[in-house]
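Feature request disguised as a bug: please show the residue count (53) next to MICOS complex subunit MIC10 in the output. Example input:
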Amino acid sequence: MSVGELGRNWDHCLADSAVKLGPIAFGSGMGLGMAYFNCQHDFQSPYLLHGNL
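Example output, currently without the count:
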């Protein structure tokens, strides 16, 4: 395996890892944001009942 081929393989692996980590970070950020919003809402109106009637 030549040095150029090894470099291309590393570049491909790093790019693939970055693409896969991007959606995970985005999804985690959205999940944390939604949880924060729900907790903030609960603390601002603690006497409202949540759920189906």
